[in-house]
Structure formats: structure tokens, C-alpha cells
């Protein structure tokens, strides 16, 4: 996190939550949901603020959600260059999502999104499903408001290119071996967070996208699939079953 952003965020957090500073942590902040003094965050990397009463409350928020103005104008502040073509995407992944880009280098690339009726253009974080055939999902670094022909508006935060039905995204280099437990989550960012904590995970990209094509490729593997969303397979497909997985209160903590 850039020092000027970090200092601004810390100043606001201390004022709003009345934290006590303890070493590298801010602790005993007042939770806006349960009103207990259990909120904490890292003073070094304050991108996520959480209530410690995870089972009884579970409140959490990113500092981007709390103070969006402190993180704005990524396209202007972190423009891509010939020497650093992923500069904007790296800044978004680091400052907003809390990842260390050097640890996941090559897992994404920077793209660009524009719409003829959009209010802006923006850099994107592209996750390739099948780059050879031009299939990917991209997270928009800054939200684009699209005005439809009938005057209605839509806030777009993501975009799909190519037919992704039946596919999933998985961290590059993730090998699937007999005996593995693989988590099926919806978002690429969730899959990355779980993988960074030693849990093999793939992203289905949508709760309605049953990844039949990818599951068919696992028919020779003895693996356990854990799903956080209920997905009903097509009648013609009979892949191995997917267990529902733990409830949110029992699930692993992942980056927002």
C-alpha cells in the first residue's frame, strides 16, 4: 500500500473505530454490527477490518468499501507502461484485494474495458480460462456505469469474453492429484486466497455455471469436491457428486 494511502486509511480507522494500538495491530475497535469492542485490523496492511466474534457476528469490510475515495482513480495514479504493463492491475490486486502481486505473478494480466454507452474506460484484471480460444473473465478496476437505450443504468464490475459455460478458472500450475480435496468457489479472488492458504480451489465464475467440462476431465481422479453453492448438473451429465461444504461461519477466511 502506498504510504500516503495507508496513512490516510489509518487516520480514518482510528477515528471511526476508536482502536487501541498494539504493536502491528489495531485492536478493540467498536463493531458497527454487534457494538462489541472486537474489531481489529493490521496496522501494516489495513485492507480488511473484521469483528473477532466471527461465529456470533461475522462483520467484516475492506477499507476500499469503507473509504472508496482513498483508493480512487487507479487508472490515473497507476498507469501501465511499456516497462510495467500490469501496473494498474497489480495496484488493484495489492491495495484493494490485499494480495502480493509478486507471489501470484502470471496468474492474471492487465486488460482494458470500454463500452459505447459507458461513463468511462478502465483497466481490468484478466483471468484467462482458455486464452488460445479467447475465453476469459475480467474484473474491472473501476466500476463502469452503462446507460442502456431505454435509459436504465447498470453498474458493471466484471465482464466475460467468450463462452465460459462448463469451464472454471484455476490457479496456474495447480496440479490435481488422487486424494485431493478441491474447493469450488464462485470468484477467482476467493480461489486465489484459498490457494495461498494451502487449499486447492477453482472458481466457477457464477453460481449458475456448472463446470461439467472441467469435471469430465477429472473422471480418472479420486478427488473430493467441496462446493459452497448448490449447482444442479444437467441431466445428461453424471460427474462425481459435490458436497455442499461448510457454512459461512465454518468456512476459511478469504480476502474480500
Mean pLDDT: 87
**Secondary-structure-derived class:** alpha+beta
Q: Please count the beta strands (DSSP E, at least 2 residues each).
A: 12
Order of helices and strands: HEEEEEHHHEEEEEHEHE
The main β sheet shows up as: 5 strands, antiparallel
Q: Tally the helices.
A: 6
Structural notes for this entry:
18% of the residues lie in helices and 26% in strands. By secondary structure, the protein is of the alpha+beta class. The protein has 3 domains: 3-69, DNA Primase, Chain A (Alpha-Beta Complex), CATH 3.90.580; 74-161, no CATH class; 165-239, no CATH class. The strands form 3 sheets. The chain has a 5-stranded antiparallel sheet with strand order 1-2-3-4-5. The protein is globular and about 55 Å long.
Ordered list of secondary-structure elements with their pairings:
Blueprint: H1 3-17, E1 20-22, E2 25-29, E3 39-42, E4 48-51, E5 60-62, H2 63-66, H3 74-77, H4 87-96, E6 109-113, E7 122-130, E8 135-147, E9 153-161, E10 181-185, H5 188-196, E11 201-203, H6 212-216, E12 224-227
Parallel strand pairs: 10-11, 10-12
Antiparallel strand pairs: 1-2, 2-3, 3-4, 4-5, 6-7, 7-8, 8-9
Short description:
With 256 residues, this protein is of the alpha+beta class.
Keywords:
256 residues, alpha+beta, DNA Primase, Chain A, 3 domains, 6 helices, 26% strand, globular
Amino acid at each position: 500500500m502506498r504510504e500516503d494511502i495507508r496513512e490516510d486509511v489509518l487516520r480514518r480507522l482510528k477515528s471511526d473505530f476508536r482502536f487501541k494500538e498494539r504493536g502491528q495491530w489495531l485492536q478493540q475497535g467498536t463493531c458497527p454490527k454487534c457494538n462489541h469492542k472486537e474489531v481489529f485490523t493490521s496496522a501494516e496492511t489495513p485492507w480488511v477490518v473484521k469483528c473477532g466474534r466471527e461465529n456470533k457476528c461475522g462483520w467484516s469490510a475492506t477499507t476500499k468499501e469503507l473509504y472508496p475515495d482513498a483508493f480512487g482513480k487507479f487508472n490515473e495514479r497507476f498507469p501501465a507502461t511499456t516497462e510495467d504493463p500490469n501496473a494498474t492491475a497489480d495496484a488493484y490486486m495489492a491495495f484493494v484485494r490485499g494480495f502480493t502481486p509478486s507471489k501470484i505473478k502470471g496468474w492474471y494480466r492487465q486488460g482494458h474495458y470500454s463500452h459505447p454507452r459507458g461513463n468511462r474506460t478502465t483497466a481490468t484484471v484478466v483471468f484467462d480460462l482458455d486464452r488460445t480460444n479467447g475465453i476469459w473473465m475480467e474484473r474491472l478496476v473501476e466500476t463502469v456505469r452503462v446507460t442502456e437505450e431505454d435509459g436504465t443504468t447498470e453498474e458493471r464490475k466484471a465482464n466475460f469474453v467468450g463462452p465460459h459455460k462448463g469451464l472454471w478458472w484455476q490457479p496456474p500450475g495447480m496440479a490435481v492429484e488422487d486424494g485431493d480435496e478441491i474447493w469450488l468457489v464462485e470468484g477467482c479472488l476467493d480461489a486465489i486466497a484459498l490457494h495461498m492458504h494451502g487449499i486447492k480451489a477453482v472458481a466457477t465464475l457464477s453460481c449458475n455455471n456448472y463446470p461439467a467440462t472441467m469435471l469430465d476431465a477429472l473422471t480418472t481422479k479420486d478427488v473430493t469436491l467441496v462446493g459452497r453453492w448448490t449447482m444442479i448438473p444437467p441431466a445428461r451429465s453424471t460427474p462425481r457428486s459435490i458436497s455442499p461444504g461448510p457454512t459461512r461461519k465454518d468456512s476459511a477466511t478469504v480476502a474480500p
